[in-house]
Specification:
Growth Hormone, Chain: A, 2 domains, MFS, MFS_Transporters
Length: 400
């Protein structure tokens, strides 16, 4: 596949993959209502609903790792199709379930297939786009999620008032729609890819690569901060006399900033930054925005702070995935991206515990001051691991 030069349009395959991801994200709202479905339809306690939700979250961690393994061994398109169709089947089953055990079973099944899509789709971008433009490509991929997320909220608000089970049906339909688009636009996997699992290249281990481990540690801290914002922001607003529902407005501001800020990544001054410097700068911006949350007295002040930390997020997400793709040997990109991506699974477990505890013990000001300090520590860490991230011809992949 031909790499394209800086400044050209992204390859058609990548652009259509981004569109397909936005379509899929339009339906990715049902999980937010899984606990509501369990408590209202089956009369379960909130604690039981929380356990089912936690089981889903735990299942997503091996799902992403397995997705990376399949991406490199079975093929990119096959793995994406498997993940999307598996999600659709599980979602339809949850919608049709007649008992709590059935819902719990298929919630775990959904978790096991939920992240299969991510590593191969990220690897497709790395395969199709040259190193100089991967940051922009991954940032646009992330922006597609933001755009889809905005539409998802509107769909959920309408369909959810009708019947909660239909949320899962709509989600399943968008998974199938995305699968159809992927099947049509992605090139077929090479015929011999499934037979290459026994080749020496298939034994490349991401988990024994010091550079990847360093990025994974930084990525886990970043993801924990990000998930803390998602979980704790609605809980913290009433302390300042602001309605918890206004968090939806702030999340929309963040999504709009992510989309509108894409041209910033093409500025020569930004594009010329080394990866560690750009990541550290993004972390500093996030720290500034979260420090703004700590002292913000009004909703407009929260809006301004949201714009600041969202620009920091914009500078970090695409650059981080581009760097991991560059660290990876070509034949192990799926596994490297999957290993890095498990940081989000760990953050999903850690953020609710840490964020709610901090909010309970230190209040909103203490919570956001602590997360701002974590971002400063992240900036320092990104600069500290610079020696491990030298991308030269002498860098050897670690083989089992």
């Amino acid at each position: 596949m031909r790499f394209f030069a800086r400044g050209e349009r992204l390859p058609r395959t990548v652009r259509l993959l981004i569109v397909a991801r936005a379509v899929n994200r339009l339906g990715a709202f049902s999980l937010s209502f899984l606990t509501v479905l369990i408590t209202t339809e089956f009369g379960a306690s909130p604690a039981t609903a929380g356990l089912v939700s936690a089981a889903f979250g735990l299942a997503t961690i091996p799902s992403r790792l397995f997705g990376g393994l399949l991406a490199d061994r079975l093929g990119r398109r096959r793995t994406i199709m498997l993940g999307l169709c598996g999600c659709a089947v599980a979602q339809f089953a949850i919608a049709a379930a007649g008992s709590l055990p059935v819902v719990a079973l298929f919630a775990v099944v959904l978790g096991l297939v939920f992240e299969l899509y991510e590593p191969p789709s990220q690897a497709v971008i790395a395969d199709a786009v040259g190193a100089g433009d991967r940051t922009r490509a991954y940032s646009l991929f992330n922006a597609a999620l933001a755009v889809g997320g905005m539409g998802a909220g509107l769909i959920a608000a309408g369909v959810g008032r009708w019947d909660l089970r239909w949320l899962f049906v709509v989600d399943a339909v968008t998974c199938l729609a995305c699968a159809i688009v992927v099947r049509a636009v992605l090139p077929a996997d090479p015929p011999g890819v499934a037979r290459s699992a026994t080749a020496p290249a298939a034994r490349v281990s991401a988990w024994r690569d010091p550079a990847l481990l360093a990025m994974f540690a930084c990525g886990t801290l970043f993801a924990t901060v990000y998930m803390t914002i998602m979980i704790a922001l609605p809980l913290s607003l009433p302390e300042r006399g602001i309605a918890a529902t206004d968090a939806g407005l702030l999340f929309t501001v963040s999504a709009v900033t992510t989309v509108a800020g894409q041209p910033l990544l093409r500025l020569s001054a930004v594009a010329a930054l080394s990866a560690p410097t750009a990541l550290a700068g993004g972390a500093v911006l996030m720290a500034a925005g979260l420090a703004g949350y700590a002292v913000a007295p009004t909703l407009p002040a929260y809006v301004a702070a949201t714009v600041v930390w969202s620009v920091g997020d914009l500078f970090m997400v695409g650059r981080a995935y581009a760097l991991v793709a560059e660290l990876a040997p070509v034949e192990a990109r799926g596994r490297y991206l999957a290993a890095y991506g498990t940081s989000w699974g760990l953050a999903t477990i850690a953020a609710p515990i840490a964020g709610i505890q901090l909010l309970d013990r230190a209040g909103a000001a203490g919570l956001w001051a602590a997360t701002a300090c974590a971002c400063v520590a992240l900036a320092v860490a990104q600069l500290a691991i610079r020696p491990l991230l030298r991308l030269d011809a002498g860098r050897q992949a670690v083989v089992l």
